[in-house]
């Protein structure tokens, strides 16, 4: 793996090569780390003031507010790292309300001994992800814990954005006849992390799909504000999101078995580990529930965005089996797609 | 995906299905041995599209399901020791013992790790010479070669901190036990393709002859399963009872010889208890005397274990094909994958879990 950003932006010279407990103690070393690692990458007119809080303009109307904590192991994986994941994760959670994400906070928990080179590389990818999403990091915090008290680093991001007038997106809005749109292939992120963790390699590397989806959502809202429900199917995968929809709205969901796209190498990884892609995490995909009359135009708008190129209609909302997600099999039978219980466990044989 | 999609082609599958409908005249009860086949049948809805006259009953071929409670309790006891790193395939961790499962041992501070191969456990043993590394060696003939290889390799390297807690079971003795039971309803078997990949099929000829049942070696993809059913029904309708290999792209008559000699070197045949069924003579493997140093049961004396099975659970009769998960009053109520009363609700290969996952409400 090469990191062109890191090459073009060398690690700043600090008085230590690795994070010390003193870097979290609020003294000179803390300031050195903030000045050299964080500020140059995240700089904006709010952060620059270095106050204990960010004071922001309120344009009125509704805000969408979300928080998420990132503890992924490994911290670097094909297609991304814990840094862009932390930005995109919160950006997407805000965007799934139809809101335009604006401001983020970032909290770092660093393990004593973490190389600054690693931290710098992660901060660079956070900078890049924030720029792509068009969000500002306006406040932050850093703590350093004893070696062994956390695994390298954990990141929390919180953030908010503004919900445009006339947009009302909710898991309880599904209506019979609605179409279910998926923005692209399933399971890329989860299988990238799992195959890296288990040291499995394939002819072509399985890459995470981590991406900010706020621009895609705005492209969709430009077609029609009449989107009933939106979700980015992260942990628990598409199956979990759809089960949450069907139970919140007390309607049934019928999936067309053949329509769900999964990349060839991701399918291979899933087959080997005995894991169903419907239950695997995605970090750059969304599932939308829209009325049938806007479905085709919405699909075209999604396909015109780089994060929705392989968008497709995967099913519809039905008045049969309320609260249940079902999928047609190749033989014309119908089976339940249930909520997962705990983590997915590779089978014995 | 090459070598997979060909065997999931709905057009061909529907053709085979049509042929099954046209050859079926009388009612038949067919058992698929392997939990992997059960999973495929329920996931693809094969049981929903077969002729009404064909009843599929789900066999005992789910290693998680038949591992006896005593062994699970023993594993939990060993895994809780502070000097032990306990390693296992993933789906054993959620199997309920008498009082807890291995996940709970982990949350209480036990070092319990999921591995994909026993050779990974060997690696952990090499890297942690001050710890005892134990691998939970469960499964049928399919996992036996890998588990045998880990022991042989440990002996070769002189590793003294590796051992296996063995609960290996064998398919043919279980097939015979079911057929000789007074309550038996099974008239034909879909034999487990992967077991035959290792062992070949010579063991099955005497069973087919003695009990007059057709035994068709069957794979796991929808087309494999349908094809296995078709050829079993054809034999049943014709009154023949032969062993037939319908998984020829993988299975050879003699099986995998190097794997078999590895098994023979490390393991010997032993009586084994099957959860829900009871003891079946000569139905499993234990570690041979010469590798006794790698036998976790001998290494860790855990004393007498008093086991308690939940009264409501009927997994034993389900594993014998006498009842279906729907017939259990606890199914989907007290007993769910979140809170399983018996092992058939734990593994995705267990009949109860497969029914719960794919068919719970659509069938009502």
Description:
The complex is a heterodimer of chains A (349) and B (364). Helices cover 31% and strands 21% of the residues of chain A. By secondary structure, chain A is an alpha+beta fold. Chain A has 2 domains: 17-163, 60s Ribosomal Protein L30, Chain: A, CATH 3.30.1330.10; 179-336, PurM-like C-terminal domain (Phosphoribosyl-aminoimidazole Synthetase, Chain A, domain 2), CATH 3.90.650. Chain A has a 7-stranded mixed beta sheet. A 4-stranded mixed beta sheet of chain A has the order 1-6-4-5, covered by helices on one side. The two termini of chain A are 32 Å apart. Chain B has 364 residues and is of the alpha/beta class. Chain B has 3 domains: 5-62 and 173-241, 3-Layer(aba) Sandwich (Rossmann fold), CATH 3.40.50.11750; 65-170 and 255-299, HypD, alpha/beta domain 2 (Rossmann fold, 3-Layer(aba) Sandwich), CATH 3.40.50.11740; 316-359, no CATH class. Helix content of chain B is 39%, strand content 19%. Chain B is globular. Chain A binds chain B through residues 198, 264, 267-268, 271, 273-274, 321, 324, 326, 329-336, 338, 341-342, 345-349, and chain B through 1, 4, 8-10, 13-14, 17, 36, 42-46, 48-49, 63-64, 89-94, 103, 114, 116, 138-140, 142-143, 194, 222, 336-338, 347-349, 356-362.
Strand tally of chain A, please?
Answer: 13
The total number of structural domains of chain B is 3
How much β-strand is present in the residues of chain B?
A: 15-25%
Shape of chain A: globular
Q: What's the CATH C level of the largest domain in chain B?
A: Alpha Beta
* Mean pLDDT reading of chain B: 92
CATH homologous superfamily of the largest domain in chain A? PurM-like C-terminal domain
What class, by secondary structure content of chain A? alpha+beta
CATH architecture of the largest domain in chain A: Alpha-Beta Complex
The second-level CATH architecture of the largest domain in chain B is: 3-Layer(aba) Sandwich
Taking strands numbered 1, 2, ... along the chain, how are they ordered across the largest sheet of chain B? Answer: 4-3-5-6-11-10
CATH topology of the largest domain in chain A: Phosphoribosyl-aminoimidazole Synthetase, Chain A, domain 2
Count of runs of 4 or more consecutive helical residues of chain A: 9
H/E series of chain B, N to C?
A: HEHHEHHEHEHEHEHEHHEHEHEEHHH
**End-to-end separation of chain A:** 32 Å
Q: What is the CATH superfamily classification of the largest domain in chain B?
A: HypD, alpha/beta domain 2
Distance between the termini of chain B: 35 Å
Structural class of the helices, strands and pairings of chain B? alpha/beta
Task: Report the radius of gyration of chain A as a whole number of Å.
Answer: 21 Å
Oligomer: heterodimer
């Amino acid at each position: 793996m090469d990191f062109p950003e890191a090459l073009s932006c060398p690690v700043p010279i600090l008085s230590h090569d690795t994070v010390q407990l003193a870097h979290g103690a609020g003294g000179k070393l803390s300031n050195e780390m903030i000045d050299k690692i964080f500020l140059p990458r995240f700089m904006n007119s709010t952060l620059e003031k270095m106050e204990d809080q960010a004071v922001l303009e309120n344009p009125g109307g509704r805000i969408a507010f979300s928080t998420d904590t990132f503890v992924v192991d490994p911290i670097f994986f094909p297609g991304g790292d814990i840094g862009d994941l932390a930005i995109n994760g919160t950006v997407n959670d805000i965007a799934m309300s139809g809101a335009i994400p604006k401001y983020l906070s970032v909290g770092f928990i660093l393990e004593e001994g973490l190389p600054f080179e690693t931290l710098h590389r992660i901060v660079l990818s956070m900078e890049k992800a924030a720029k792509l999403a068009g969000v500002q990091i306006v406040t932050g915090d850093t703590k350093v814990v004893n070696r062994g008290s956390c695994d390298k680093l954990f990141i929390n991001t919180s953030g908010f954005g503004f919900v445009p007038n006339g947009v009302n997106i909710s898991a309880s809005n599904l209506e019979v006849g609605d179409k279910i749109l998926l923005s692209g292939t399933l399971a890329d992120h989860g299988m990238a992390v799992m195959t890296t963790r288990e040291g499995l390699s394939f002819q072509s590397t399985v890459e995470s799909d981590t991406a900010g989806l706020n621009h895609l959502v705005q492209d969709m809202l430009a077609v029609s504000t009449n989107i009933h429900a939106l979700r980015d199917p992260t942990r628990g995968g598409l199956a979990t999101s759809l089960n949450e929809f069907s139970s919140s709205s007390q309607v049934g969901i019928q999936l067309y078995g053949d329509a769900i796209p999964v990349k060839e190498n991701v399918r291979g990884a899933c087959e080997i580990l005995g894991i169903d892609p419907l239950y695997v995490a995605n970090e750059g995909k969304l599932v939308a529930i829209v009325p049938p009359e806007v479905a085709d135009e919405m699909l075209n708008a999604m396909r015109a965005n780089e994060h929705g190129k392989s968008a497709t209609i995967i099913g519809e909302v039905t008045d049969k089996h309320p609260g249940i997600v079902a999928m047609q099999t190749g033989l014309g039978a119908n089976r339940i797609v249930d909520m997962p219980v705990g983590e997915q466990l590779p089978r014995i044989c | 995906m090459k070598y997979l999609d060909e065997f999931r082609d709905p057009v061909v599958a529907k053709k085979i299905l049509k042929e099954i409908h046209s050859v079926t005249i009388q009612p038949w009860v067919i058992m698929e041995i392997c939990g992997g086949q059960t999973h495929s049948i329920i996931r693809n809805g094969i049981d929903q599209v077969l002729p009404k006259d064909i009843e599929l009953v789900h066999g005992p071929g789910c290693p998680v399901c038949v591992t006896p409670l005593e062994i699970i309790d023993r594993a939990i006891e060993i895994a809780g020791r502070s000097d032990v790193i306990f390693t296992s395939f993933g789906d054993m961790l959620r199997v309920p013992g008498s009082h807890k499962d291995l996940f709970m041992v982990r949350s209480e501070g036990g070092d319990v790790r999921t591995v994909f191969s026993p050779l990974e456990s060997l690696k952990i043993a090499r890297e942690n010479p001050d710890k005892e590394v134990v691998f939970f060696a469960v499964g049928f003939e399919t996992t036996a070669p890998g588990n045998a290889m880990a022991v042989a390799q440990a002996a070769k390297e002189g590793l003294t901190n590796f051992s296996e807690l063995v609960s290996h079971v064998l398919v043919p003795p279980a097939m015979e036990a079911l057929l000789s039971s007074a309550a038996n309803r099974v008239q034909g078997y879909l034999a487990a393709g992967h077991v035959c990949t290792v062992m070949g099929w010579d063991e099955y000829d005497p069973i087919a002859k003695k009990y007059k049942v057709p035994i068709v070696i069957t794979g796991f993809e929808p087309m494999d399963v349908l094809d296995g059913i078709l050829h079993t029904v054809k034999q049943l309708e014709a009154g023949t009872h032969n062993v037939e290999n319908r998984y020829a792209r993988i299975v050879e008559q003699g099986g995998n010889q190097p794997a078999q000699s590895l098994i023979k070197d490390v393991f010997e045949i032993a009586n084994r208890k099957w959860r829900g069924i009871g003891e079946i003579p000569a139905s499993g493997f234990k570690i041979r005397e010469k590798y006794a140093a790698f036998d976790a049961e001998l290494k860790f004396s855990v004393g007498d274990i008093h086991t308690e099975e939940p009264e409501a659970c009927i997994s034993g009769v389900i594993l014998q094909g006498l009842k279906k998960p729907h017939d259990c009053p606890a199914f989907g109520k007290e007993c769910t994958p979140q809170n399983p009363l018996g092992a058939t609700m734990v593994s995705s290969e267990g009949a109860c879990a497969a029914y719960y996952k794919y068919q719970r409400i659509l069938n009502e």
